[in-house]
Each structure stands twice: as C-alpha cells, then as structure tokens.
Write a structure and sequence with these properties.
- It is built from 9 helices and 13 strands.
- It is an alpha+beta fold.
- The protein has a 5-stranded mixed β-barrel. A 3-stranded antiparallel beta sheet has the order 5-6-13, with no helix packed on it.
Length: 430
C-alpha cells in the first residue's frame, strides 16, 4: 500500500510491549477529521451523546460533490499517523480516566452489526489499519492461577494489519500530556487535537482457540479487502464491510515467551524470542545444552590441534629418495686440526695464521702466575713471628684420624682394631 505522509521518527517509538495509552502507527486514508464523506458533526461534538450529533447541512452538498469529484479525478492518498491506543470519542469534553480508556481498546465485531451505539460514526467514516509485528495472549492454567504468555505472529513473518477504528477529540480549557491534563493557560493552545484508535476483534480461528476465544481481525496487506476497508468513498456501513470482519485464514506461529512481558514498562527484544529457542539464555535447558556444546567444541578443537601437530611432524621428517644410501662415513685419519677454517672476504682483513702444536704446548707448559699471600698489616702480638704463633696452636686434620691408617681399608678378621675402639656389631652383642 502507498504511503504519502508519515510522522517524524521521534513521534513513534519502537516497543516490544505495547500497552494501552501508548502511541503507535496507524494507516488510514488521508481524509478530514470528520472522516469519509460529508461533514456530519460539529468539531468538539455534542453533549456526550451520539444521538445529539447534528449535521452541517450547508457543507453537506459541497463536501459530497468534492468527494465524488476527487474520486474520479485523482488517486486516494494514504498516510501513517501516530495515535494513542484506547479510543476517545469526538464528543468527549474532559480527559477520561485510565479505566475508561481501557474499555475502548477493543471493539467486538458483533457490536457493529446494528446502527446504534458509540461506534456508529467511527465504523461509517473512520476506519483504519493498526500495524504491528504480532500480539500476546496468555494461556491460563490451574484455574487461572498460572498465566503463560504466548506470542502470535504470521508464519511468513510479514507485518500484521489489524482492522481498527479511529477518532479525534478536543478538550475544553485543557490539554492532555500523556495521561495527565494541564491548564490551557500554561502556554498550549485550546485547539490541540488528540487522535486515538481501537482494534476490532472477532472469533478465534482453530490455531488460536486453545489460548483465547477472541482474536484481532487481520487483513492482508495490499489486498482488495484492505482497500475496501479503507475506501474513503464509503461513508455508510454495509454488509460488505461487515463481511470483512472474520477470523484469519492464514498460518500463524504461536509459542510461549518470557513472563517478563506481563509487566507494563518492560521492553526487550527477547520478549518475542521463544522460550525453547537456543537464543533464549534464560531457559535452563538451553544452559545445559550450551555446556554440552562447549565441551563438544573443546574436543573438536583438541582433535584439530592434534591433526595440525601430526601434519607439522610429517612436514619436518626427511623423505627417502629411491637409491639413496644413508651410511655414515667416518674418516679416522682426520683430526680436529684438519677442519676447514672459515674463509675471509678478499681484501677485507689480513689472512689468519694457523697456530702450531708447539706453540700450543709451550703455552700449556708455562707455569701459572703465582698468587701473593696476603699478610695482615696489624699483628695482634708485637715482636712474635706469625710462624711461631701458628705452631703454638694445636690443629686437627679434616682428612686424617691421627693413626696413619684409614678405617675404611680395615677388613673384619684381617686387621685388629686399635685399642679403645671396637666394631658396632660387637657393641650391640654385649
């Protein structure tokens, strides 16, 4: 479907948990605020009752002629517009409370059959399409004590197009900011308009009946049914329009999601991820599956590493050439002195002289330099030589026992132990 006008990016925010009172994108024909056809009610409405809506006779003929002329002369223009979920009728003069707005977030298809009730003007003149990726429904268990949220979307992942109704209202002497009203004297104009919408519901199809007995009316994007629903030339309700409000015939994808979506204010892309999906990190089954997958991955990496080492070892191993002999040749006649010396580049340095054996021997035969014994300059005893002092002290040898014989060389029964000593075995035999 074509789009001739769209809001700014800051007017609509992306959300994965849309609640009543949020602003979302609505697709509709580019018609005046009174809707399709001629102008049939005063801006600002009547006294809180649709029965008191009055027609502007002066503008009826002129507007009707203009509408019929435009239908034949140019194509219908369509626009995307930001509107708040929870329809507020045009005749409302004061800001409704949140509870009143909750009662108008949905509109039953069977309530549109008769031409009476609050939806009469909207269904005739102000029809729209609500765009979204999908919607949530809760599966009730244990007599309603447990509720499990499920996400519902198209099987082909295309956007869902809900049939809806819209309206615009103005408040007397006040404006609406979010869910609170402030005085018009605060700097805002009294002509500010508030666009709101509702979603039309019908009976559930066989795919969704296990979750809920109602579902939104879903139209195919660009289909004849959608063009008929948005046709600005249709300003009266008909059986043809009523017939469009039926359960969806296409395939749906329905699966449980995180319970965090049940709290208004939460917003995360994980809300539309299936609980059983591998992308859901909060699922305990996926936690253990990831642990097994990690171990399997480590085994595969270890196997690859071993294969790489094996390939490297084969690359380093010398290959045998047919006919090649690998016997070791030993030259017993050669000596280390016959090893070739490194050659020096020509004209870069003087030639080296090979050292003769005699020179090597003479160097090895030369005595090492003598070490000078250090003597103390300050002697503790005056007039006594250091030799006499050393001889006066009795010393013990670290390698001799004073007998001149080594006890380790004495064998049992061959040599008698010196007096005053005995073998340890004889000592314990006593």
């Amino acid at each position: 479907m074509p789009v001739d006008e769209a809001p700014e990016d800051d007017e609509v925010r992306q959300s994965y948990n849309v609640a009543p009172g949020y602003n979302e994108l609505i697709y509709r024909a580019d018609v005046p605020d009174w809707g399709n056809g001629s102008r049939s009610h005063r801006e600002g409405g009547a006294n809180n009752s649709e029965a008191e809506v009055t027609k502007n006779v002066e503008n009826t003929a002129t507007t009707q002629e203009a509408t019929e002329g435009n239908a034949g002369s140019k194509e219908t223009r369509y626009k995307l517009q930001s509107m708040k979920w929870g329809l507020i009728p045009f005749w409302t003069k004061r800001k409704p409370d949140y509870g009143s707005m909750l009662r108008t977030i949905n509109c039953r298809d069977d309530s549109l059959i008769e031409d009476r009730g609050m939806w009469t003007t909207m269904k005739q003149r102000k029809r729209c399409i609500v765009l979204c990726q999908g919607f949530y429904e809760w599966l009730k268990k244990n007599d309603g004590k447990e509720k499990i949220p499920h996400f519902v979307k198209r099987k082909d992942d295309q956007l869902m197009c809900f049939a809806g109704l819209w309206d615009v209202a103005k408040y007397e002497g006040a404006i609406l900011l979010g869910l609170e009203s402030v005085s018009a004297d605060a700097g805002a104009g009294e002509d500010q308009k508030f666009y709101t919408y509702t979603i039309i519901t019908t009976s559930s199809n066989t795919q969704l009946s296990f979750l809920h007995d109602r579902m939104p009316v879903i139209l195919e994007n660009g289909s004849t049914d959608m063009r008929t629903w948005l046709d600005p030339g249709r300003s009266t309700w008909s059986a043809e329009l009523q017939a469009l409000l039926k359960p969806y015939q296409g395939e749906l994808d329905i699966y449980p999601v995180s319970k965090d979506v049940g709290k208004v204010g939460n917003n995360s892309p994980t809300f539309i991820v299936p609980v059983s999906s591998a992308q859901n990190k909060n699922n305990i089954a996926n936690y253990f599956a990831n642990a097994k997958g990690g171990a399997k991955k480590e085994d595969e990496e270890s196997k690859i590493h071993k294969e790489e080492e094996s390939v490297s070892a084969e690359a380093l191993e010398a290959k045998h050439v047919p006919g090649e002999t690998r016997e070791t040749q030993v030259d017993n006649g050669g000596t280390e002195d016959n090893a070739p010396l490194p050659s020096s580049p020509p004209d870069t340095q003087a030639p080296r002289v090979k050292r003769e054996q005699s020179e090597v021997g003479s160097e090895e035969a030369s005595p090492p330099p003598k070490k000078h014994q250090k003597t103390s300059e300050a002697s503790p005893t005056k007039g006594v030589s250091p030799a006499k002092i050393a001889s006066s002290k009795k010393t013990r040898s670290a390698t001799s026992n004073g007998t001149g014989k080594s006890p380790m060389k004495r064998r049992r029964g061959v040599e008698k132990a010196p007096a005053g000593s005995q073998e340890i075995s004889q000592f314990f035999s006593k």
